[in-house]
Amino acid sequence: MPDDNNRTREGEDIMILPEYPDMGVPDGDPSEDVTASPYPDPANPLPTPSLPGNIGTGNQGGVPGGTGNGQWPPITVYPIPILPTPQGNQRRYCTIRFLNAAVGYERIQISLGGQRMVNGLGYGELTSYFIERSGFRDIRVTDEMNGERLLSADTFLLTENETYTAAFVNGVNGPSMFLMTDHSCADRYQRTSCVRAAHLSYNAQILDVSAQKGEVRFEDLTFKMVSTYKRVLSGNQEFVVTDAISGIALFSVRQQIEVNQAYTMYIIGNAYGAPSLEAVFARDYSRLEE
């Protein structure tokens, strides 16, 4: 009888598992409403990691005030923090990280449930994961560059043991948070990893993403669409983003894919001005089947 693994070709959709990794929480009194954080002091979080590159100015295209030219040299993959295992804490937790993908908003502050989580998150920057209580939680975003003006206030149901990325994106009624689930991904091959693509550019048309010279394709991505995971060979891979209608290549990036990992390629930027369309690669906190 043929092996199921041998019947699975590169580039096919990867099975999504319902299981997620156990997540640690800091020790403490469960009755206290303390925000769990990968930072040493949740009341005074450290600066979030930044993408390299020069940030310019300008206001072009269909989204407010461009904040840079979008040209970043090698894409940064943010590491997954190693967190302690919970001991005797009966609260229910999930993990969440934040991405500033909104053109025109250079530096934002993010609060969750009334607790300040992030200070000065720049455009194109992504935080590490935070451990947070599950349930209905309010996420508020303020503008650090404009007297902490309120930019958005959203309420999301965060499920126990789930893992999320919340992206701040442009929209027809102004910017808002968009919540994505960082699913687990099963991959039994020894030389591959799981990769998916997320379309977060408000004014970009329908997009296609291809890798391995077209052998792997993420097709017909619309705004706020997150593809399924696909199997991609490890090594230095080129990802080409094209207009799905015309087939015109818009940009390409190269990314070092490590074995047995899960990645998301976030497509951000202004399709008609600065900062131009670019990709932010991030390693997802998800359990790969061994």
From TrEMBL:
Ranges of biased composition (kind: Pro residues): 39-50
Residues spanning the signal sequence: none
Residue span of region Disordered: 1-68
Lineage: superkingdom: Bacteria
Matches recorded under Pfam families: DUF4397
Domain DUF4397: 95-209
InterPro entries: DUF4397
Basic and acidic residues bias spans: 1-12
Name of the protein in its database record: DUF4397 domain-containing protein
Provenance organism: Candidatus Dorea gallistercoris
UniProt lineage: Bacteria, Bacillati, Bacillota, Clostridia, Lachnospirales
